[in-house]
Specification:
heterodimer; A: 312 residues; alpha/beta; 2 domains; 11 helices; globular; B: 293 residues; Rossmann fold; four-stranded antiparallel sheet; 10 helices
């Protein structure tokens, strides 16, 4: 698998605060790469450096077959597209005016712009609304027009910043289908930043950053592997919350929480059989699949305990 | 405790709520799930009495008091945690000494006892939500309404916040939470899906999952677009979705367990049989199917 971008030992300080600390990872070419972390984790700082908008304090970011973001900044930026749900199209312009405006910003000729708008509006299914004001569009349509604007100059790398937060599941599935088609057709690489787990589930590869440090990377399946077989659920006869408080401090339990009236537990390393015995006193324990949220809560807590890097 | 009957609210030509029937019993931890624009906030505003319905009604048990945690952080960022809570108590007529005792007990409970002097604007996202929660509880309401309380909050803080809600619920508080996250719905004791102003499903999580009457398959493949094309050509399959490295295929109405055999046969040249496996539905699968009806 070839690499589009290499991030090596990148650190960024703001005064005494280290927003990104010795971060290294590869963005594989032609894949959907998810970059995850809570607000304030260093996620935006890292992305801004990757986009050529902020210089690292130290370390290097290279890619696109020989470019260096610090040396070839303008060339680097011309290879990127950027789309955010919050990213504003001009609401008082029509769809077509918005797209023509972006065409000019990217330095396309009027003819190129026209041709690409025709292709993209067909592909993203909004040909019928070219003359409508952007303001009146539904969230889903606005999202597709934003995507077209980000793709107008045919970037090799597309940044998606929380692209489907708050969008209904049908709209989200349609959006991801389009992204996968585009990635497959053009060999485009997609870099998604998000803290929504349902967006994370859509990625080929994930990197998780916390407190400025990259604490894990791998495919969703690889990341879940560590917790596989360690999740058990039990629906107790009595009060589930009371049961939860009894579990606090049990060495065989790494984590326990409530899903409605069900108690969901994560066994400590090597403790599933012990946990099964413990839960059996309160009902019949059922195994369950780990969610990505389970993975991240577990990684974050482990990091607080040990401050070490986990690579899957 | 709260019962909406044919509740409808229009804003000009837009129908935010469309004949909603919904009840919440005393002591429930109720989840109202829906995407942006589904009508969640409108529902809350009507229940809390700040907005009138266009048609239909909401019956609320006499004397029910509400606490409300709005979607946007509504504390003064240039006041400290303690100052915000004192101001809130004054506005709601809670006697100063009573308010002080409640505030310090609640701050202790949410793990913010040390942060009384910190400016609200300098709190993390998770702590802002906890402060809003404490403020809403100062009047000791019988029902707590939370409008998307964990949007933008990291997974660890979100887990902690739900633990707090679980504890309040355990202590007898009735809670209604709205959220756009399907996975968050799982934290509630009962759930309703709100879709374009209508309730499309309601019940406990197992009840809702049990309404799903289609077979689902998970297919692991590196050739996802080719596999998708093949699946889409099968009359037995009526929906194919890509999820990162896997695909999900849904059986058409009337199909059953034979779907797996047929899909395995159809994909034989691309996918080993073991990489086609049955899959249980998620709440999202139910939501998507309900929305097609």
């Amino acid at each position: 698998m070839s690499t589009l971008i290499q991030v090596r030992n990148v650190t960024r300080r703001f005064g005494t605060f280290t927003a990104a600390n010795d971060v290294s990872f590869d963005v594989p070419r032609g894949k959907v790469f998810g970059f995850l972390g809570p607000n304030g984790s260093g996620k935006s700082t890292t992305i801004r450096m990757l986009a050529g908008l902020l210089a690292p304090t130290s370390g290097s970011i290279t890619g696109f077959d020989g470019l260096d973001v610090a040396r070839d900044t303008e060339q680097w930026k011309s290879r990127l597209g950027y789309m955010s749900q919050k990213f504003s199209l001009y609401l008082d312009l029509t769809v077509e005016e918005n797209l023509r405006f972006f065409g000019r910003i990217y330095g396309l000729t009027a003819g190129q712009t026209r041709a690409r708008i025709a292709v993209l509006s067909e592909r993203l299914r909004f040909t019928g609304i070219m003359d409508q004001l952007t303001e009146g569009l539904s969230t889903g349509l606005r999202q597709r027009v934003s995507l077209a604007a980000a793709l107008l100059h045919e970037p090799e790398l597309l940044f998606l910043d929380e692209p489907t937060g708050g969008v209904d599941p049908r709209g989200r599935r349609l959006f991801w289908d389009l992204i996968y088609e585009l990635a497959a057709d053009r060999g485009m690489t997609v870099l998604v930043t998000t803290h929504y787990m349902d967006e994370a589930e859509q990625c080929d590869t994930l990197a998780f950053i916390l407190d400025g440090v990259l604490i894990a990377s791998g495919s969703p399946r690889e990341l879940k592997h560590d917790l596989a077989g360690r999740i058990l659920e039990v629906r107790p006869e009595g009060d589930p919350f009371a049961l939860l408080t009894r579990f606090a401090g049990q060495p065989s339990i790494e984590d326990a929480y409530l899903l409605g009236l069900t108690v969901r537990t994560v066994a400590a390393d090597g403790g599933p059989s012990e946990l099964h015995r413990l839960l059996s006193a309160f009902g019949s324990p059922e195994p369950a699949e780990p969610s990505l949220e389970d993975v991240f809560v577990s990684l974050a807590r482990r990091r607080v305990r040990s401050r070490e890097v986990v690579t899957v | 405790m709260i019962a909406a009957t044919q509740l409808t609210r229009k804003f000009g030509a837009t129908t935010a709520l469309d004949a909603v029937d919904l009840h919440v019993d005393r002591g429930e931890l109720f989840g109202l799930i829906g995407p942006d624009g589904a009508g969640k906030t409108t529902f809350f505003r009507i229940v809390a009495g700040v907005l009138a319905p266009t048609a239909g009604s909401v019956q609320v048990e006499r004397g029910t008091t509400f606490g409300f945690v709005p979607q946007r952080f509504a504390m003064y960022e240039d006041l400290s945690v303690d100052e915000n809570l004192r101001l809130r108590a004054k506005l709601y007529g809670v006697p100063t000494d009573v308010a002080k005792a409640r505030a310090s007990e609640m701050l202790e409970r949410v793990g913010m006892a040390r942060f009384g002097a910190r400016l609200a604007g300098a709190l993390s996202g998770g702590m802002k939500q906890k402060l809003a929660l404490v403020a809403a509880l100062l009047t000791q309401p019988a029902v707590l309404l939370l409008d998307e309380p964990t949007t933008g909050v990291d997974p660890v803080s979100r887990r902690e916040f739900w633990m707090l809600l679980n504890r309040l619920h355990h202590d007898g508080l009735t809670i209604i939470v709205s959220t756009p996250y399907m996975d968050e719905a799982e934290y509630a004791t009962r759930i309703a899906f709100l879709d374009r102003g209508r309730v499309s499903k309601s019940g406990t999580r197992p009840e809702i999952l049990a309404t799903y009457d289609r077979p689902l398959l998970e297919i692991r493949t590196s050739q996802r677009l080719d596999v998708r094309t093949l699946l889409a050509s099968m009359p037995e399959v009526d929906d194919v979705s890509l999820f990162g490295t896997v695909l999900h295929a849904r059986g058409a109405k009337g199909t059953g367990a034979e779907l797996m055999t047929r899909v395995r046969a159809r994909l034989r040249e691309l996918v080993p049989a073991d990489d086609v496996r049955p899959l249980g539905p998620s709440l999202e699968d139910v939501f998507v199917l309900a929305g097609e009806a």
